[in-house]
Design a protein that fits this description.
The complex is a heterodimer of chains A (about 290) and B (about 140).
Chain A (H helix, E strand, L loop, with lengths): L1 H58 L18 E6 L9 H12 L5 E5 L1 H8 L4 E6 L11 H13 L5 E9 L5 E9 L8 H13 L3 E3 L2 H74 L1
Parallel strand pairs in A: 1-2, 1-4, 2-3
Antiparallel strand pairs in A: 4-5
Helix pairs in contact in A: 1-6, 2-3, 4-6
Chain B lengths: L1 E5 L4 E6 L2 E6 L2 E5 L6 E5 L2 E7 L2 E7 L2 E6 L2 E6 L2 E3 L5 H16 L7 H28 L4
Parallel strand pairs in B: 1-9
Antiparallel strand pairs in B: 1-2, 3-4, 3-6, 5-8, 6-7, 7-10, 8-9
Helix pairs in contact in B: 1-2
Classes of the chains: A alpha/beta (about 290), B alpha+beta (about 140).
Chain lengths: ~290, ~140
């Protein structure tokens, strides 16, 4: 019968699919491990750097603010950096990200995209897309940050935009990855409330600190380093989310394929049995005559 | 004095030391225990640590040094122990970078140029630090 042949073919297809998704799941799992290690190993550096930056930005005179901390001339333009993976097959990650972009931004925003998957949705928004970088399939090395930061600097320091923000998928835990908007520039020395600033200030005055050569010349370098690190953290976070999401999406796909194989096998066996029964009936009927 | 040298990749050094010598914008400075709170930019070059009278060398490509409450932290872009420097690799990197720089006129982007330049500087620095370490420990035949 043709239908058994058809069923066999469908079983084979489902088996092939499950093999592929299983392999992709395992690849994602191993990449996830590396990404987690990278995120963990850079954490001490990032923590120290942000602690130092916070401490120093509080000390700086409001009259001699470095360019990164100055609020723009309020031309209302915002540069939005969107980070997405290059490849799909990672569940709802890209869709959620695109929705967040639509919610959080307006047409007047200027966009910079990293990752092929978000390029399309952003270019369809009819806003200005100034640059687009591929994300790549490997753990992003640090030097991918430089061209991105260069464009951010160009836009912000020249006053073309007065705010810079990043939308990327944040890794909440292994089951939840959430698209999130982070404000990058201008840097605000951690919005301190009145009360807090009173309690903090005497402390700062007490702690004598020597700067070599002086704070004003160190701070710009420190801040640009801080921005590079902040962008890099977002990249790592996005990569981590992508691999986690893909691992789970592929796990689901493998399970679904297995379910389909089970169903098809049952159906195949039933048809086969029905065929045999029919044949036996034919033979016995023939013998009786 | 307690010292930590941290890079984005890992913590390179952690422990009690007697003296640190680093390059700053204004020249070389040595930091002894109980130094006044200090914050400075570290220039690319060599960092010398003195631990129990012995000197250790590290190559560093720049970063920041913070001293507060008798605890020093170096936030380095990239740092490597002199003993860990792979001379072969550094030489290779130097060659590669030099070749890239030679090709500059043949339509190399600004970024490629800068990264090649950075790589060359790092290779030269590593070789320099490595050769000093050899000089100290066992003279070259």
């Amino acid at each position: 019968m043709a239908s058994t042949l058809l069923l066999l073919r469908r079983i084979r297809t489902a088996q092939n699919v499950s093999k592929t998704t299983r392999a992709m799941q395992m690849i994602a799992a191993s990449k996830l491990k590396k990404a987690q290690e990278a995120a963990l190993s850079s954490r001490p550096y990032v923590e120290k750097l942000s602690a130092v930056t916070k401490d120093l930005t509080k000390r700086v005179d409001s009259s001699s603010l470095p360019a990164y901390m100055k609020a723009g001339k309020e031309n209302g333009k915002t540069l939005t950096v969107v980070i997405s993976p290059d490849k799909g097959l990672c569940g709802g990650l890209v869709t959620n990200l695109a929705r967040e972009v639509l919610l959080q931004t307006t047409k007047s925003n200027v966009f910079l995209t990293i990752g092929k998957k978000i390029e399309g949705p952003v270019s369809r928004m009819e806003s200005q897309l100034i640059a687009s970088f591929p994300f790549g399939n490997i753990l992003p090395p640090f030097n991918v940050v430089y061209p991105i930061v260069q464009i951010i600097n160009e836009q912000f320091l020249s006053g073309k935009v007065d705010k810079v923000e990043i939308i990327s998928t944040h890794f909440v835990n292994i089951f939840v990855q959430k698209p999130q908007l982070t404000k990058l520039l201008p840097l605000v020395p951690d919005a301190i409330t009145e009360e807090e600033s009173k309690s903090v200030k005497p402390d700062l005055a007490d702690a004598f600190q020597l700067f070599e050569p002086d704070l004003e010349s160190i701070l710009p370098d420190l801040l640009s380093r801080y921005i590079e690190m902040a962008v890099y953290q977002e990249l790592l976070e996005s990569y981590l989310s992508e691999q986690t999401a893909r691992m789970f999406a592929m796990q689901n796909a493998t399970n679904n394929a297995k379910d389909i194989i089970e169903d098809l096998k049952l159906e195949y066996n039933k048809t086969r049995q029905a065929k045999i029964t029919a044949e036996i009936l034919d033979i016995t009927a023939g013998a009786a005559v | 004095m307690y010292l930590e040298i941290i890079t984005p990749e890992k913590i390179i050094y952690k422990g009690e030391i007697d003296e640190i010598v680093v390059n700053t914008a204004d020249g070389e400075i040595a930091v002894l225990p109980h130094h006044v709170n200090l914050f400075t930019k570290v220039m690319p070059g060599e960092v010398t640590l003195k631990v129990d009278g012995k000197e250790q060398y590290l190559a560093i490509t720049g970063g920041f040094l913070e001293v507060s409450k008798n605890k020093a932290t170096i936030l380095a872009d990239y740092a490597v122990h002199a003993e860990e420097i792979d001379v072969e690799k550094a030489l290779e990197a130097q060659k590669r970078a030099e070749e890239l720089l030679k090709k500059k006129k043949e339509g190399l982007t600004e970024l490629d140029f800068a990264s090649a330049q950075g790589e060359l500087r790092r290779a030269i620095l590593e070789l320099h630090v490595a050769s000093r370490r050899r000089h100290h420990n066992r003279p070259l035949n």
